[in-house]
Specification:
It is built from eleven helices and 25 strands. By secondary structure, the protein is of the alpha+beta class. The longest helix has 36 residues. Keywords: Membrane, Transmembrane, Transmembrane helix.
């Protein structure tokens, strides 16, 4: 009996020991399972901020930088005189019917006799036209009509107001301003030369109205400004290659043409033309521009401003920017709280969220994983770089760090990134500015048309975030004049 009790006690003890061991093992493995399922206290896994963009590269390239090309035009009266005399020669007017104009019994032919003289006064052109005139007229004597011919010389005078209509039509208003006899008209009758000055004078007075009307009609019909101006308009719109290295084009989008009223100063006629439009540099492939088929209305203004501005655009892709940042920061270590904590940067990446640049930084050390920071990019004109301001931890990153690594929030890591993370774009902008300035130095576009100008003031506009790149836009102001000599 005693032996059986002893054996029973040993079995119970063994079972108790076995159960304790089992419970211990079960508790140990359960604790390992719980620990393995719980996130590590030093492992970061914040939610990535959403990638969002407000604008595209094309929209940035179409950003509006309104400016005016100031085109002072001076035309010597001698040039106008030369052009008129070149175009007007020989027979310039004829009436070959004796029975038109109410059976007037009058025929005439008119030739240019010498140089047409041009002067200007009180906003009017004055023309003196030397003519040789042949006349055949019916003379009634005792109920019989005899036809006589004569030739004479006269200087006709006209005054003309010259206007350009909104549709680019040339519009003249010509009035007769009298005439002077050089060789008076006579006809031979019964062996006598009979003066017919008064008769011919009345006929000239009667026909001067139709002559001036015909002159105005001919000017309106034969002078075509639309064709050459449209050609120049499309030439101006064609993108101009500034830099092969950066694949940069200067693109001008003209919108309006302004002109001041003609001013007569001595022997020179002056006016100012203003070509108002947008000028911007673009990068990448040459922009496709369809030729315009019409011109905007011509607008007469009292004065044309001489301001000129160009938007210079520099591009930095996110991949390029991230590589520059990685070269600067990857492998760099930071210590906090008197060296109690430390981290080392392992990777850098970038993308956009509306107007902010998102920086994804990989870390290892006291904490491991990724963190996200957000800051607003801007162009720093002093260093000619794209820099950041107000760089802060993203909200989800901040919430996680407050729980597990508040020392990082209190440290200088974000401020160091903001201060040292810069993307140089100055050389690209400087090259473009130099190229444009060279094009504004005594550049003869065509014979008689010379461009001169300077770029004075450089002001940063802003940095735009697009799906592919950061685009820094700098607004360059200056003056430009296009000198036109002759016609």
């Amino acid at each position: 009996m005693h032996k059986e009790k002893k054996r029973y006690a040993e079995v119970v003890a063994q079972l108790i020991h076995t159960n304790v061991f089992f419970v211990f093992c079960l508790s140990f493995w359960l604790s390992l399972f719980v620990v393995s399922c719980r996130p590590s206290s030093n492992r970061l896994n914040p939610k990535a901020p959403k990638e969002v963009y407000n604008t595209t590269k094309m929209e940035v390239q179409n950003e509006r930088f309104l400016s005016t090309a100031h085109v002072p035009v001076s035309i010597a009266l001698s040039d106008i005189e030369h052009q008129i005399n070149t175009q007007v020669s020989g027979l310039i007017y004829e009436d070959n019917s004796l029975t038109d104009n109410g059976n007037d019994q009058f025929m005439t032919k008119v030739w240019k006799r010498g140089t047409i003289l041009v002067s200007a006064q009180d906003s009017l052109f004055h023309f003196t036209v030397p003519l040789r005139i042949w006349v055949k007229a019916g003379v009634s004597v005792l109920g019989f009509t005899q036809y006589k011919e004569t030739e004479f010389e006269i200087d006709l005078r006209f005054k003309t107001k010259f206007d350009l209509d909104r549709d680019w039509s040339v519009n003249t208003h010509t009035e007769a301003d009298g005439y002077g006899w050089v060789k008076r008209p006579t006809i031979g009758f019964v062996g006598l030369n009979i003066p017919i000055t008064n008769f011919v004078g009345r006929m000239i007075d009667k026909n001067l109205g139709s002559i001036t009307k015909t002159l105005d009609q001919q000017v309106r019909r034969n002078i075509d400004l639309r064709t050459p101006v449209l050609k120049a308009w499309n030439l101006l719109r064609e993108p101009y290659l500034l830099s092969d290295k950066y694949r940069t084009y200067l693109q001008v989008v003209p919108k309006r043409v302004l002109i001041t009223p003609l001013r007569f100063e001595g022997q020179v006629i002056r006016s100012t033309i203003g070509i108002e439009g947008y000028a911007l540099t673009t990068t990448g492939a040459k922009p496709a521009v369809k030729p315009a088929v019409s011109l905007p209305d011509l607008t007469v203004v009292p004065q044309v401003k001489d301001d000129f501005q160009i938007g210079l655009l520099s591009e930095a892709t996110y991949q390029e920017a991230a590589k520059l940042a990685a070269d600067e920061f990857v492998g760099k270590s930071f210590s906090f709280s008197e060296n109690r904590y430390s981290i080392t940067v392992t990777s850098m990446d970038m993308y956009g969220q509306n107007d902010n640049l998102i920086i994804k930084a990989g870390l290892k050390g006291t904490i491991n994983g990724d963190i996200y920071l957000s800051g607003r990019p801007y162009y720093d004109p002093r260093d000619q770089t794209i820099s950041l301001k107000d760089l802060k931890y993203d909200l989800d990153t901040r919430n996680i760090l407050q729980q597990s690594a508040s020392w990082l929030l209190k440290g200088t890591f974000a401020r160091t990134l903001e201060k040292q993370l810069t993307i140089p774009v100055g050389s690209q902008l400087a090259d473009m500015q130099k190229q444009i300035q060279e094009q504004l130095k005594n550049n003869q576009v065509i014979k008689g048309v010379v461009i001169n100008g300077r770029l004075d003031d450089i002001k940063p506009d802003q940095v735009y975030l697009t799906p592919t790149a950061m685009l820094a836009v700098v607004n360059v102001r200056g003056r430009v004049e296009v000198k036109v000599e002759g016609l």
